[in-house]
Specification:
Elements: E1 2-3, H1 6-15, E2 24-25, H2 29-36, H3 41-48, E3 54-60, H4 67-70, H5 74-81, E4 87-93, H6 95-109, H7 111-115, E5 119-121, H8 127-133, E6 136-139, H9 143-150, E7 155-157, H10 169-176, E8 178-179, H11 186-192, H12 198-206, H13 213-224, E9 249-258, E10 261-268, E11 287-291, H14 297-302, E12 305-308, H15 315-325, E13 331-336, E14 339-344, E15 349-353, H16 358-371, E16 377-383, E17 386-393
Parallel strand pairs: 1-2, 3-4, 3-6, 4-5, 6-7, 7-8, 10-16, 11-12, 12-13
Antiparallel strand pairs: 9-10, 9-11, 13-14, 14-15, 15-17, 16-17
Length: 394
């Protein structure tokens, strides 16, 4: 039995002596993923369309003591009380609620709140991203509320089923967290919500190995199956489900055909291991270009070029922060109308214009910088069947 903290070993032994020697402290891969995803908060907020509004996330477990059973109109009440241009609202419901009532019924129940802008997150994908993006969480004794508190989000309890969690760390959540009172204005309570010191204690009582749980579980499963240990990949929390998944990491091969002509070939990093070894041979300008939407944290850490393809505020500031967080990166580029702004690890800033996508423009800038002295320059970029004029200005 894999547990997240050594305290749980003692609980199991107290419940059944047969557990002796049959437990292993792993940690919690879900909590580890949430912590590792914190740096992608602004990305999740853009994906969710929150903008610069304060994001209040409501979450409920299942059963008669749950928040949604006790206060089913709370999502609509929140959106009615909060200015649309200042607050955004989301709702995460336990999978058992979706299984029992089905999506059609839930969307019918929350139709008014959804019409007011409520983000009703499906149980399979998106609630983790919403939790990272949230400014505060309103919940109950469920695991999402607990994860929010442990990751030091401001938490308010709309209700709490003490009898459902006796003798567990969740009981501490019920004792310490602020309550959302029906008799007080909602906005006043939300505006006053803040992180408290006890939340660090809650996390330390519950989760061990917070930066190695995924690897520990991976290793344990391979050992139990008597298999040779395979590679461990750590993923950030997935974006909310969409119909099309963009490619966010490429191995790029720029080749100059002449002084002012460049051919760029790109291969999706996720399938690179199936390419013949000969085709993956090193090249002078070969590099890894990764967009901030990439889920694989390892790829972000080894990227030569980092990009932000979505338009956002302060592109130069984003580039500087990306270079600071990823010291192995050589160039960071952020989208602006008509192209992108790029900053090198040496602090050189430049504007790149052209009709290609931001990763292609960034790869072109990287190749030009590697090819000679810094100077304003225009090249013809050949990208598949398309050709675009790309201009660099310092």
């Amino acid at each position: 039995m894999a547990v997240s903290h050594s305290n749980q070993e003692n609980q199991l032994l107290a419940a059944s002596p047969a557990a002796a020697g049959r437990t292993v402290v792993i940690g919690d891969p879900q909590f580890e993923q949430l912590l590792a995803s914190a740096g992608h908060r602004e990305h999740y907020r853009r994906v969710l369309g929150i903008g610069d509004r304060r994001f209040a996330l409501v979450t409920s477990t299942w059963g008669t003591q749950s928040l949604i059973a006790r206060r089913p109109r709370l999502p609509a009440e929140l959106l009615a009380a909060l200015p649309h241009d200042e607050y955004a609202g989301g709702l995460v419901l336990h999978p058992n609620i979706w299984a029992r009532y089905r999506p059609f019924q839930l969307h019918a129940w929350f139709a008014a709140a959804e019409d007011a802008g409520l983000l009703l997150l499906p149980p399979e994908l998106g609630w983790q991203a919403a939790l990272v993006a949230a400014d505060l969480v309103i919940g109950d004794h469920g695991s999402v509320t607990f994860l929010a508190a442990a990751s030091e989000k401001p938490v308010l309890l709309g209700t709490f089923g003490e009898e459902s969690v006796p003798g567990t760390s969740a009981a501490m959540l019920g004792e310490r967290a602020q309550r959302l009172h029906r008799s007080e204005p909602l906005r006043t309570q939300l505006d006053a919500a803040e992180t408290a010191p006890w939340q660090k204690e809650l996390a330390s009582r519950t989760f061990e190995n917070t930066d190695g749980a995924t690897a520990a579980l991976h290793t344990l499963v391979y050992r139990l199956l008597d298999l040779e240990l395979g590679p461990v990949t750590t993923f950030r929390a997935a974006d909310p489900a969409s119909q099309k998944t963009p490619v966010t990491a490429f191995t790029a091969y720029p080749v100059f055909n002449g002084q002012d002509s460049l051919t760029l070939q790109r291969f999706a990093r996720s399938v690179e291991r199936w390419r013949p070894e000969a085709e993956r041979a090193a090249a002078d300008l070969r590099h890894l270009v990764v967009d901030e939407g990439e889920r694989d944290i390892g790829r972000l850490g080894i990227a030569t070029v980092l990009t932000r393809s979505a338009n956002g505020d302060d592109p130069s500031g984003w580039c500087a922060e990306a270079l600071r967080r990823h010291p192995g990166c050589v160039l960071a580029a952020a989208a602006v109308p008509g192209g992108c702004v790029a900053v090198t690890a040496d602090g050189v800033g430049l504007a790149v214009t052209g009709s290609a996508d931001v990763p292609a423009l960034a790869s072109t800038a990287y190749a030009i910088l590697r090819s000679g002295p810094c100077s304003n320059r225009t090249v013809q970029l050949h990208l598949g069947a398309a050709t675009a004029a790309v201009e660099l200005q310092y």
